[in-house]
Design brief:
The protein has eleven helices and ten strands. The chain is an alpha/beta fold and about 325 residues long.
Amino acid sequence: MQVIEHLAKAKDTLVSFEVLPPLKGRTIAYIYEHLDPLMEFKPSWINVTYHRSETIIRTNAAGVEEKVDVRKRPGTVGICAAIMNHYNVDAVPHIICGGFSKRETEDALIDLQFLGIDNVLVLRGDAEKGQKTFVPTPNGNHQAIDLLKQVVGLNNGEYLDKEILNGSKTNFCMGVAGYPEKHFEAPSMEFDLQRAKEKVDAGAQYIMTQMFFDNKKYFEYVDACRSMGINVPIIPGLKPITNKKQLTILPNIFFVDIPSDLRNAMQAATTDEACEQVGTEWLIGQSKELKAAGVPVLHYYTLGKPQVIKNVVAAVF
């Protein structure tokens, strides 16, 4: 079932989760162990992130250094199929521009279609490790809207090989990212909102937000989107803070603010367990307020903390 179909049928706030593919060398059991504690909440869907390859330097057998492309977390397409088969729940793979040519993207979309997966979250993706700015892959999509247009084209039966006439049409439901605190590369919030509107006008059917820790920023973002004529569902993305290091790491990586009350409470905690409890209680408070406001879905970035997420969801639903 498509994400928008879940939303259309919902009578109350839904719940969904997001997982990382395991590091290369681990098995699908890692995913099952991660999700098993959460399945009692009957998530409407589960997102699976996609990760571009990294260029690293290795010394070969001849003692010569050479560049090697390594993808540390492969398997997004296969994991989505496994999740759907194992749990009978819909999976939403992320698809990204970085590290993929348009032809590789088309092949991945065809594989998804063959597997009966009809949802995608369309993202540009991060810059390659070691690069300050995003550099498009040769013959790849430059921005999320370009990738979105490729998916829309395939939904219309338009393939890269123009000799394919009357090709079968895919039927992907397409989500895109939104940034309540502005994408760090955008010169202004107005600019960022305009880019969001362009993606919706091009065919995006819902927006999934970057994490935030102050609900006021989400509500203001929704209001700003509506004033721009963006009327698709806007799903809040939520993540727990569970240790003091994240107070610095998350703002540096994701360019999000940490409210002073959360920061002070975390700094006052004297043990790892106390830090985790502070983060859990904060996320419970966020979730309850958002649910009371009637948000369509509470989407949790689990990211290695399934027990924390379980405690939060149990307190909210």
